[in-house]
Amino acid sequence: MSVFTRGSARRSRTAGILGAVAIAGASALVLTGCSGGGGDTPTSDAPETRDLTLNIGTVLPQTGALAFLGPPEEAGVGLATAEINEAAKGITVNVEYGDSGDPDNKAYETTVPKLLGEGVQALIGAASSGVTKLFLDQAVGAGVITFSPANTSPDFTTWEDNNLYWRTAPSDLLQGEVLGNLIAEDGHQALGIIYLNDAYGTGLEASLTETFESTGGEVVATESYNAGDTNFSAQISAILAQNPDAIAVIGFEETATIVPAFVNSGFPGGDFYFVDGNSSQWGADMPVSIEGSKGTQPGPVLADDFQQRLIAQWQEQSGEELVDFNYAGESYDAVVLLALASLAANSTEPADIASKLQEVSGGSGDGQQCTSFTECADIILAGNVADYDGYSGGIAFDDAGDPTEATIGIFQYGAENTHTRIN
Q1: Which residues pair with 193 in a beta bridge?
Q2: pTM of the predicted model over 0.85
Q3: Distance separating alpha carbons of residues 394 and 377, to the nearest angstrom
Q4: How many other β-carbons are positioned within 10 Å of the β-carbon of residue 322?
Q5: How do residues 26-55 score in pLDDT, each as one tens digit?
């Protein structure tokens, strides 16, 4: 087992190391941080009351390269909103759904100003780190919280955000470490990497390269491409010329073009490694067999009951079947944490909510652990401190708004080009 500790620094936040990463074999990565237990004795037998209305807007991908992430993320937001409102604990959540698109179609340029103009206190999104970077300063300038369920770029750890940026997805420093160890433990020695040249791709490529080479392996070729590219022949030729025995593809929907080109050039379809941006249920959308290939995705195993609730919620919201669950737990938890922080602050002002997010996540204070909005709300209304452990894990935000408890799962593709979790 190897252990990795990290700290963070940001203007208006105190730097500190609140957690450690533990990698067990090459499977799941767990980052354990400061979670409280116990809690204070209630000061009164009568619970406090609240009458709050929290307005949030989503900036999640309905179109663009990450559109496959939109349904599970919007289902998570919708389910959390419905369950919070049903609990009737003194806070009502209203949600307005909007499209983030991607840096190519720029849907966020319409969505973000519209939501800010409607007076939301928080934006949920974006999924893409590159998209969030394009509107985050605008949201910070408006004094509104940006809470992403899927941003993984390490750059956000030190972003000057006035304490208004938070995420339930772990940094790519963690996913890259898990992926590098996985590839090495599968017996590969010579790795080729093709990656999207944006904040997401470059961060993952750097972390993957560092980890894989630290195991004694060699990254024999690394090639980038730009968003919107449709021809990858130059990168593929350069990588194959170095005779890799494994290829990591770091990107989005263009993976369905890149992988067949490698396979048609003679590379085995079972020796690819994917990341959260392209570890989708490809099925017939992947025109060659990738049986045996593997991928990584942040998030623990989702309980069957939670998946069924998500499926029912998405059917109600869209009339469609939910087939992926990527970042559904992180999206659900984002809404729950915002509502709990609002309850704890007895305010819907974004700065007040932000001041309580670390506390209700278990990253500070000596809170009582709880695993549902209702349970946590009751703790808060009784005058105590809640420590929410959700579907994305223990969370426990550090001073930079990053989760210090996170899991990276390993998935393997079968004969139908769909994956199952193997750890």
Answers
A1: 222, 248
A2: no
A3: 17
A4: 19
A5: 333 444 333 333 344 444 467 888 999 999
